[in-house]
Design brief:
Helix content: under 10%
Strand content: 25-35%
Distance between the termini: 135 Å
Radius of gyration: 34 Å
Number of strands: 23
Order of helices and strands: HEEEEEEEEEEEEEEEEEEEEEEE
Number of domains: 3
CATH topology of the largest domain: Immunoglobulin-like
Length: about 290
């Protein structure tokens, strides 16, 4: 009897002790989130009832201090002042390593907080070390910056860098340098004429005028055989120079143009872009002054 009673008591004691130890262990692994610290927001900034998703992307109990953020991803860690945090890039487009990107696609970077200092000097885009020209805008309501390229080089790796000049105006904390790259698609589009001087149909043009044609991309094979200037069926002599990154061809006549004459400029399909896409043959004309 005594041995059996002792055994049952021992078993009962061990069982209670095990339950207590398990409770302590579980208590050490989990605790309800602190009201200020909160926990990470769900998709589309979703939070449970009585909680609101804050600027730090964490659900905070309604009524808790908005000046505090969680010190780490662990919700059991006490809050730290928000000035400890630098703004973060949470969205990029095109994506890291994306390929077959179009030459005119805007480049986007989204931030977790409102930022300042976004400009062409802090949103850098380059191809093989050569800066890509473009304009930068910032949308405060969406916390996003957009780079609109004039034209991305085709079949190229494009490198994007956001510098610490971008910062959080509320705390002064700067963005950690952020960079990524993507690759553009091959060029399958032909060059087109974007501007002529004189304009097509112009009248009263000076007989001393030069003639220039600007294309929407760099071109090659522009010479007096592919850029022909004529009047009354006869070819006018002159020289051609390229400028504007091989986007503009200028014809300088050897002699003054004839007065009160119709001058015709013909551009042939021998003119191509850097990848060999030919220009669709085109022409324009103007009339000189009497």
């Amino acid at each position: 009897m005594t041995r059996r009673s002792v055994s049952r008591g021992t078993i009962l004691g061990l069982s209670v002790g095990l339950v207590l130890m398990l409770g302590v262990a579980l208590g050490g692994c989990y605790g309800p989130p602190k009201p200020d610290c909160g926990f990470r927001c769900g998709p589309a900034q979703a939070c449970p009832a009585d909680y609101t998703c804050g600027n730090d992307n964490r659900c905070h109990l309604n009524g808790s201090s908005p000046t505090l953020q969680c010190g780490t991803a662990d919700a059991s860690v006490a809050d730290a002042p928000s000035e400890m945090y630098s703004p973060r890039v949470i969205l990029i487009s095109p994506g890291r390593g994306e390929s077959e990107v179009g030459f005119d696609r805007p480049i986007l970077a989204g931030f977790d907080v409102d930022v300042m200092g976004v400009s062409e000097l802090s949103f850098l885009v380059s191809a093989t070390g050569v800066p890509v020209s473009g304009t930068v805008t910032y949308e405060p309501s969406e916390h996003r910056a957009i780079f609109f390229p004039s034209r991305l080089p085709t079949s190229s790796q494009i490198d994007v860098t956001l510098t610490p000049a971008i910062r959080d105006p509320a705390t002064g904390r700067t963005l950690q340098p952020t960079s990524w790259f993507f690759e553009t698609a091959a060029d399958g589009l032909p060059p087109v004429v974007s501007n002529t001087s004189p304009a097509d149909g112009a009248v009263g043009v000076s007989v001393a005028a030069n003639i220039s044609v600007t294309f929407d991309e760099p071109v090659q094979n522009v010479d007096t055989a592919s850029f022909v200037v004529s009047e009354g069926g006869g070819t006018i002599g002159g020289t051609i120079t390229m400028s504007n990154g091989n986007r503009t061809a200028t014809f300088d006549p050897t002699a003054s143009l004839a007065a009160a004459a119709t001058i015709t400029v013909t551009l042939s399909s021998s003119i191509t872009d850097a990848t060999g896409n030919p220009l669709a043959a085109t022409s324009f004309s103007f009339t000189t002054a009497p």
